[in-house]
Amino acid sequence: MFHVAQFFSNEKLSASDKFETLLLSANTLLALSFSVLLATVVVCYPLSYMFPFELQMAGHVAMIFSATLVKIAYVCRCIAQHELHKEVR
Q1: Whole domain around residue 51: which residue ranges?
Q2: Transmembrane region positions (predicted)?
Q3: Residue 89's pLDDT is what?
Q4: Per-residue pLDDT tens listing for the chain (89 residues)
Q5: 4 in a domain, yes or no?
Q6: Which of 86, 68, 80, 70 is nearest to 18 (CA)?
Q7: Are the beta carbons of 25 and 72 closer than 8 angstroms?
Q8: Structure pTM?
Q9: Is residue 2 part of a domain?
């Protein structure tokens, strides 16, 4: 199993190791950004009456950024899967 710490070391990495790292990073970013997106949707819409206006505004801004990160992470994931000859889904 390849570890992310090896990515930052001085030793040369093979292309497949780099794409394995990209896949791991993209999956992690996808999970985190999707969680933030769900949290901001809950704060901004169904439970908005429980939060102050400033927090709702921050939630709307965070919603835009987290949705963008979801899309970027998904594209990186697709690229890594394609280069590793895995099924892209």
Answers
A1: 15-84
A2: 21-48, 60-80
A3: 80
A4: 556 666 566 677 788 899 999 999 999 999 999 999 999 999 999 999 999 999 999 999 999 999 999 999 999 999 999 999 999 88
A5: no
A6: 80
A7: no
A8: 0.82
A9: no
Q: Which residue's entry shows tokens 């963008």?
A: 68
| DSSP code string of 16-84 | HHHHHHHHHHHHHHHHHHHHHHHHHHHHHTTTGGGS-HHHHHHHHHHHHHHHHHHHHHHHHHHHHHHHT
Q: How far is CA 73 from CA 2, 7, 64, 80, in A?
A: 20, 18, 14, 11
Residue 5's Cβ-side half-sphere holds a number of Cα atoms within 13 Å equal to 1
Q: What angle do CA 10, 23, 71 make, to 5 degrees?
A: 125
Which tokens is 70 given? Answer: 């979801």
Report yes or no on 9 lying in a domain.
Answer: no
Number of structural domains found in the chain: 1
